[in-house]
Amino acid sequence: xxxxxxxxxxxxxxxxxxxxxxxxxxxxxxxxxxxxxxxxxxxxxxxxxxxxxxxxxxxxxxxxxxxxxxxxxxxxxxxxxxxxxxxxxxxxxxxxxxxxxxxxxxxxxxxxxxxxxxxxxxxxxxxxxxxxxxxxxxxxxxxxxxxxxxxxxxxxxxxxxxxxxxxxxxxxxxxxxxxxxxxxxxxxxxxxxxxxxxxxxxxxxxxxxxxxxxxxxxxxxxxxxxxxxxxxxxxxxxxxxxxxxxxxxxxxxxxxxxxxxxxxxxxxxxxxxxxxxxxxxxxxxxxxxxxxxxxxxxxxxxxxxxxxxxxxxxxxxxxxxxxxxxxxxxxxxxxxxxxxxxxxxxxxxxxxxxxxxxxxx
Amino acid sequence: xxxxxxxxxxxxxxxxxxxxxxxxxxxxxxxxxxxxxxxxxxxxxxxxxxxxxxxxxxxxxxxxxxxxxxxxxxxxxxxxxxxxxxxxxxxxxxxxxxxxxxxxxxxxxxxxxxxxxxxxxxxxxxxxxxxxxxxxxxxxxxxxxxxxxxxxxxxxxxxxxxxxxxxxxxxxxxxxxxxxxxxxxxxxxxxxxxxxxxxxxxxxxxxxxxxxxxxxxxxxxxxxxxxxxxxxxxxxxxxxxxxxxxxxxxxxxxxxxxxxxxxxxxxxxxxxxxxxxxxxxxxxxxxxxxxxxxxxx
Amino acid sequence: xxxxxxxxxxxxxxxxxxxxxxxxxxxxxxxxxxxxxxxxxxxxxxxxxxxxxxxxxxxxxxxxxxxxxxxxxxxxxxxxxxxxxxxxxxxxxxxxxxxxxxxxxxxxxxxxxxxxxxxxxxxxxxxxxxxxxxxxxxxxxxxxxxxxxxxxxxxxxxxxxxxxxxxxxxxxxxxxxxxxxxxxxxxxxxxxxxxxxxxxxxxxxxxxxxxxxxxxxxxxxxxxxxxxxxxxxxxxxxxxxxxxxxxxxxxxxxxxxxxxxxxxxxxxxxxxxxxxxxxxxxxxxxxxxxxxxxxxxxxxxxxxxxxxxxxxxxxxxxxxxxxxxxxxxxxxxxxxxxxxxxxxxxxxxxxxxx
Lengths: 361, 297, 354
Prior knowledge:
The complex is a heterotrimer.
Chain A: H1 17-26, H2 28-53, H3 58-70, H4 74-84, H5 93-106, H6 120-155, H7 160-174, H8 177-191, H9 197-200, H10 214-251, H11 254-261, H12 266-304, H13 309-318, H14 322-350, H15 352-360
Chain B: H1 6-27, H2 29-51, H3 82-88, H4 90-118, H5 120-135, H6 138-148, H7 154-164, H8 166-181, H9 184-191, H10 196-207, H11 209-233, H12 243-252, H13 262-290
Helix pairs in contact in B: 2-13, 4-5, 4-7, 4-8, 4-10, 4-11, 5-8, 6-11, 8-11, 9-10, 11-12, 11-13, 12-13
Chain C: E1 14-24, E2 30-41, E3 46-50, H1 57-64, E4 72-81, E5 88-89, H2 95-104, E6 106-109, H3 123-132, H4 143-156, H5 161-164, H6 174-185, E7 192-196, H7 204-221, E8 224-229, H8 232-238, E9 241-246, E10 249-255, H9 256-261, H10 266-273, E11 323-326, E12 334-336
Parallel strand pairs in C: 3-8, 3-9, 6-7, 7-8
Antiparallel strand pairs in C: 1-2, 1-4, 4-5, 9-10, 10-12, 11-12
């Protein structure tokens, strides 16, 4: 029979190596973390395969170009390549792989071909925070808005709100997010002139430095507003519809009727009985949507010239800057995996049934 | 005991079901509208090249000309007729979209139904694989692959897109196959010792036909999303004039900021959005037909 | 069997007069699931509502607390509650008053405790919710008081508070959940408890435990009980009075002894004959031929007439009212809605063993 202890994670373990292993296996949290690391490793290996092992891979091409165009020796060319990538093409393959993995752990992804002298890590570090900033805020706004709209739609099923949002949401869903971004520029900036595109693009106005001041924050928000608007518009419909359907389902559950019979206030029922249960499918979906939004960032940032990781990826792809491509791909994967992990953990906190299942597994 | 003859019964049931299915489709307003939209757009894209000649004379006096007789949507940055470009511009999009979706669907069906039927290690491996592939955002993956492999021909494009988008589809096919696996006709086929291939592809898959159709259409929307995305990013070959290229041209050429260029910008966007909308309406009503519980009434 | 002595009291705690409950059907029409029910329930009395599925007993139970779904309504009738001195017209209560009245004066234990609890809250939290929703004047009950009161009630249903209170609903078995539901229903010491099929879907040993628990609780706390069931054995054990329902109306009412030993409505007779006793000689078993009528298409006159062995021409003329057979006080009159009640006999012939 299930224990009474409300502790979410593990049962107490006695000492000993084998039971520690078993404890790790049982712990939901640790298992998810291990799995996340595994996924990142697989992607990293895949990238290595593309960059190094495939015939006609960039490293070989680079070396051959150096030899052919500049008449270098193989060793010299390899040494130059080693300066660019995080591993040395002159060494045996398995050592390159280990160096590569070691580099990842250390945060060394090599040097950018396009911007000589800049390490890939530098490039990522200057751009990634902006993407996280805009996407993060957009996600918060979008989820909250979608949540409230969805619940309202479910409570007033068939009402005006329900029909309008459903139609708008469905139509918006059909338009690819990048096209929506373009349309915002076209209509907002060009046609209606409300948005001053020349001013608002980019991540900061010229002359403003990152610092802890209100002026900086205001400026950052001003510039991030259009990307955030685009992200929100393209995702809020999905959230609202998901929340609506899960709220509708919860409203039909017995325990809601029992709660009413018990004389609980409407407010209490709405938050702790309906809300907390209806939100579960939403949390589960945040993981999938996170990947989608991050993918969309590459377009949105291009359209608004917002210097985040999306533009970095775009530029590096255009110019075949392989070390940067490699680095960005890995970082993006890590970000999405981390988002998935967080959402899984949040879900297990919110839904006690998962915790017991895992405990007894 | 009744004879197990899946092929002929499915055939007869299939034909009758198809007719009834069509009738249901016309009953739902959205479904019918969706079907009409898709048919029109696909038809136009496929047939236009036969009737409309590909000549697009540049006319430097008519750069960004407004809509007028003879040029219903105006002219573009080189004086070429916009409407003609629209009419002829759907070819690649539709072709690559449907081909990529077909590739994806075939892979997803084969892998998904085999995984569902065989289970065990193969299934576990496939699930892990799909998990991993689904983690990386699709566009990012496409962009990266576009950097490593040159994407010149439409067929190549379709191949790459098709090979990247099957994981999601595979999961739904697998789920459906799992539920079908428990049914009696599968048991009967197994008892007759028909062999894995015949059981999976002769029995299970034909019974999922309509479900597969729905997933195929969803795959088309995904493929078109990916394809147009690649064009907008400038990663797909920019020769010729299709809707994606038009959008890309408009962006690069700074046409976004010219009010006169509105028709040129909006027309391809509208066409793509319409096509996607039509496809989605189709899937929704198809889903309702197959799963009457979804009907709101 | 419980006592049939009339309780010492002045008036009924619950008076239902000509209650009709209707449901809207898809095509704009409505169907009455309860078609004119009258009864009085006296304090500390237990009434079993017995009948087949679809006879309207659950609807009646829900209607008493105004818990009908959106499509349900009460087009006619009155429900008067008289638990705390003054008479309360339940149907006229406004939202806030209704909320306060619910659970404090009348509580309900639902069918299927499987899903009656919020899956994400602990039991103690759900108890606390209930107590806090009905504050006693200005004072807010402390956590300790809440725990004490909940623990007290859990013990009275033979559960261990330290085990149950910190748990989540999915960590408890079905039987435990049902008992927790019963305990929760008594949290505010209501004078009327409605139970809808409290023992269905439970194994026989758990059923026994629940019945025993209910006996003890009634003896201790003295509340009136409306007990909805299709299980005649349970009804026999727990009920002072029994009312059988058919097609939305009460067609026979009386003390448990009246109903089980001397039923006077052909339907009740059929019901009892259909249940074999566990011990003793095996009597003839008979099922009632036919099926209950569709509520949207009721037959003329008595709704049971098409299936009735005693039916005559006059039975299809008008739907009979409850005819008193033995007049008694405090709602324990034996009455049957049958024109030929005098002819109806309950006889069970024992099957010859070879």
